[in-house]
What we know:
Elements: E1 5-6, E2 17-18, H1 25-33, H2 47-64
Antiparallel strand pairs: 1-2
Amino acid sequence: MANAITRDPETMHGVPVFRGTRVPVQTLFDYLEGGDPLEDGFPTVSRALALDALEEAKQLLLASG
């Protein structure tokens, strides 16, 4: 799995974003937390990329436990 989440000080001041975009990953979490469906939300982020980002976040969380 390629990294779906990137962090670069030159892009959005180092805020984690979806690979190839300037969309902060935090936006995905806020959107889902609000109860909105993934299908309706991100015109510049594919569903597959959003799911990859969620999988990466899951793996990081489980690895640190």
